[in-house]
Amino acid sequence: AQKITQTQPGMFVQEKEAVTLDCTYDTSDPSYGLFWYKQPSSGEMIFLIYQGSYDQQNATEGRYSLNFQKARKSANLVISASQLGDSAMYFCAMGDDKIIFGKGTRLHILP
Amino acid sequence: NAGVTQTPKFQVLKTGQSMTLQCAQDMNHNSMYWYRQDPGMGLRLIYYSASEGTTDKGEVPNGYNVSRLNKREFSLRLESAAPSQTSVYFCASSEWGGQNTGELFFGEGSRLTVL
Fold first, then answer.
1. Dihedral sign of CA atoms B6, A25, A49, A86 in order
2. What residues in A contact B9, CB-CB < 8 Å?
3. How far is B56 from B41, CA to CA, in rounded Å?
4. Do the chains contact at B41 and A103, CB–CB below 8 Å?
5. Each residue of A89-102: b (16+ CB within 10 Å) or e?
6. Is the CB of A103 less than 8 angstroms away from the CB of B42?
7. Across the interface, do A47 and B42 touch by the CB < 8 Å criterion?
8. With 90 as the cut, is the pLDDT of residue B107 above it?
9. What would the pLDDT profile of A5-31 be if each residue is shown by its tens digit?
């Protein structure tokens, strides 16, 4: 069975600092994708970054990078130089056809 | 460019009533999903359809039925609504293979209240 865990319910970070959001997962599938989504207070789901289980290099998209450690089954999101607009809920997700989500981390960026 | 369209956006039901949430996507995606979002619980998968003609249970399927009407449309039905089904429901679609990563494209959500 698939399982995904985000252990940080909430985080407070000073503006311009880097922040790491933790995500661990468990699956018996050899092939799967890992995703991060942002949900601002307006409620829409915004795709941030994707990592394939066979990808050798960590994915990067602008200020977002995914620290993928396959042996440890972790897929942490790193946001560099945080901005006030990064305040939101962040969800880690994984799967192949069946995609499940973690419970999320609420990130607060402090001015 | 509509993407994923869900209807209705808001609905209030009484316990025991039935209703269907409609979802349509115009991206020619094979996979479609229904999630519910409750405070502190993240998004939980109700049902998914990996291709036209197939549906599979997700994490919380009890009390729900789905129909993959065609490649574009995937509906979610509550036969006898219960207060525990008060939630925000999201439909999503994705495509795997080739250049596609399986990224989920979401609808705007449907807020359902069961009294």
1. positive
2. none
3. 21
4. yes
5. bbbbbbbbbbbbbb
6. yes
7. no
8. yes
9. 999 999 999 999 999 999 999 999 999
